[in-house]
Amino acid sequence: MAKKRSKFLMIWVITAVVCLFLFLKYASPKIFQVLMAKDHPMPTPSTLMMWYMIMGILAGLVYATTSNQKFADFLGFLLPGGGPTIKILLQKVLFVGFPVIVGWFVYSWAIPGAASPVELRIQHPTLPQEFEKLENPFRGADAETQRKSIEEGKILFQTYCRPCHGSKADGNGPFSNSFRLRPINFQDPGTIATVVDNYVFWRIKEGGPGLPSESTPWDSAMPSWKDDLKDDEIWKIIMGEYDTAGVMPRQTEKLE
Amino acid sequence: MNNLKILLNLPKRSIYSVVLLFFLSIVSFLPLSQNIFAADAPAEAAKEAAAPGVELPQFEAGQAPASSQSPEGQPAGEAGTATAAVEEEEAGPVQYRAFFGIDSRVIVWIVSELHLMFAAFVLGVPIFAVIVEIVGFKGGDIKYDKMAKEFTKLLSAAFATTASLGGLLGFCLYGLYPEFMGHMTNVFAPTMYIYALMFFGEAFTLYGYYYSWEILKGAAFKKWFHIMLGVMLNLFGTGLMFITNSWATYMMSPAGVAPLTGKLLSLSHAIYNPLWMPVNIHRLIANVCFGGFVVGAYAAVKFLGSKSEEERAHYDWMGYVGNFIGVGALIPLPFAGYWLGREIYSSSPVMGNIMMGGAFSWTFIIQAILIGMLFIGANYYLWLGMGRIKGSERYTKFFKYLIFVIFMCFAVWLTPHNLPLSGEERAMIGEQYHPFSKYFGVMAAKNAVVNLIILATFFSFLIYRRSNKGEMMPFSEQGKVGKVGIFSGVIFCLLMLVSYAISLNFVELEANMKVFVKPLIRALYIQSFVICLAAYLTFRNKGKLGQAILFAVTACIAVLYFWYYGFEVMQKANLVLRYLSVTQVSIVMSCLIMNAVIDIFMFRKAKLVGGIEWGKMPVRSQYALLLLCVVIVILMGLMGFIRSGLRMDWHVYGIMQDTSQWAYTPSLAYMGRIVGLIVALFLGLVAFVFWLAGLGDKKEKAKEHEYGEVSAGYED
């Protein structure tokens, strides 16, 4: 049985790669739709698709070449003569199917079409120097001042930020559906929890227009609040925002 | 083209012709030939006013604003002629100079990286050369001694190149960045003298070690003296590296100077700055890894060119040792790297954000791909190596599972948090993060999978060393050595785990944060218990079961549980992350140590199923070794760029600003070109140096016969 299976090693490897493709293309968007309770599928981005497929093919080739015997079996499938009818049939499918698939890929890439370019977006652009040394005056204050600033901050947050970022700071405000790129969900541990207070201060103060070009400011609808809010108010909003989202800002650590 | 042929066909003039052509081609590449002899570039006039709040009394104020500089990093047009530059030099101290019209920073970048790569080889190789020599001496096996000498031969050839590049780097730095180097000299002058003196020590011990090899053979005391020379060589080498690391890390996390004036307050603090020790440890391990893979590639080239079975067997074995050393050092490297990363975050959260989420985040994706390739290449070589061991067929069934685990981990490891998306995809996903990037893109996931890759690689190594081992002797009959060995392993692991668990009880954190530390303490105690259980099962002749339980529990805690718990801690108590990562590392390390100890003693007197047929390796395995070498060189080039580039436009972060026209962060494409050039230069140079070192081999071949037959009796 094992001997018979080894004769079809190439077919097994191809089947595994095809299964991976089908999973990424069709199964994963549906699975994530269900798991994340979305009303639409979550398609696998083309960049990830390409990376994962390259790795899948590489894994198959690594497996097929881990021994001389396997390598010979792998390539031996293509040799004529011998073997059951199913092998001859699969050979023919492969000889016809492989060029067709390659041709289809070449055609799909080469055919003229309109698509926006893929952007290498930078998540946390470099904090400008003038914001680097700032400190949140309320973060280190006594408990009473902190409590007050959080309360006031929450009110300010609900006034100015809620329409987009939502009353729970989860990115589900009443306006959120109107943006192509939804407002950030602050409850996500990969967002404001990974940056320091002054970073958020910069983002609120300068907004999307203050982003450098590599952070695609044209994608961000975040307004600049420097003309509408005082610095103190922004710091209070930050206090209220973190509290509402239930996360903590990155804190400067003591060096060991 | 015809002229070129005519020139090259003139044998008597060929050398002059080539030199002339080379000179002309260099001149034609210079962008501004009129600036060739201008000592000081227009950059001279490009000093920017210091950053707000940063007073720089050592530097001349009131120079032309930065706005007069070209944003593309080109020299500022026609502003600077040789005469103007000379006049300006007379007017005040020189801040920057250009290198014959070429970007000074690129020159320093290339020279320093080449110097660093050669230095890594020169510092890494002696560490394992001495260990191999000791193994050969204690075991009485001449082939180890021969290989250690061959390593050292490469070393002595590379040392002169390292020194020459070091000299060139020094001249470049003092010539092109005089004011910055003035500051560095003000702070570090005493250490520079010590550095120079230690360099003598390094040179004397290195050449003494190599050239006394044959003289100090024979009597035990002579050999020990020779080994002592090797140890001294390592001490001098490590000392040299530590000194230079203090200069480099001071630039990233300065300490011991007045922030506003840059005046030296404490030299010891400037040396022992926050990033000094993490970089020391990281570089020490990385040098061994680098040396191992470069030696592996050397052996692969020799293997591919071998004309006899003997040679093939020798270089196959050498390649195996090179790969073993490379992988051995690669396993703790992510831990050391993570520690360094955390200390960068600690010394400056902004620098940390630039590193992992900002301008340098994409370089870390490239780094992830390269590290993944290292692990895959190293495992692939081990699996292919099992083909030359009789009895390995029993373990080949694990390959598919290992490949699945390693590639899955690799996929998570390289998934970025922020995906490159087209506008249409962004609209279809409808939010910032796709679930793949949301759950795979953050450090909690990365740490989990890198630990799993390490465990899988270790498992590959375990099955490799078991391949030719058959029936085991019951542990109860192993005698005292086995019992003492296992007991020592348990004590070591318990000391590591329990002492850390106890220390976690006393960390200075607020009460709301401290609750997040409790699960870590529990995890450490559970692992301690499982270590004891594995040892107990080994004593009861069920060592394999003990190993399996240890592997399973470690994977559950360090990979699955900490993957989940990392998310929890990340959003609620980021200060606990550093304790979580140390706990994770301790648990994985304890598993590796204890499983290795159990394996060694369990199979100590096992029957051999068959020998290892050295030299019977498929050719593709040697290309895997070459790939590993190229990848580690690219990786070192890339990481050098990241470490240095993180300072952005500061010479000394927060203290002395880089106001030259080259103080911009290069784009990824530009970085890729320069790092590619550095890699090509290094590989070319190292091939040339090794070729030179091998020129004398033919004459020595006759002498080598006295080492006896080398093809038979190789063991792992």
Provide an overview of this structure.
The complex is a heterodimer of chains A (256) and B (716). Chain A is built from 9 helices and no strands. With 256 residues, chain A is mainly alpha-helical. Chain A has 2 domains: 2-110, no CATH class; 135-245, Cytochrome Bc1 Complex, Chain D, domain 2 (Orthogonal Bundle). Chain B is globular. Helices cover 69% and strands 1% of the residues of chain B. In chain B, helix 7 packs across helix 9, helix 9 runs antiparallel to helix 11 (333-347) and helix 11 runs antiparallel to helix 22 (577-602). Chain B is mostly helical and 716 residues long. Chain B has a two-stranded antiparallel ribbon with strand order 1-2. At the A-B interface, helix 2, helix 3 and helix 6 of A face helix 11, helix 12, helix 13, helix 14 and helix 15 of B.
Fill in the keyword field for this structure.
heterodimer, A: 256 residues, mainly alpha, Cytochrome Bc1 Complex, Chain D, domain 2, 2 domains, 0% strand, B: 716 residues, two-stranded antiparallel ribbon, 2 strands, globular
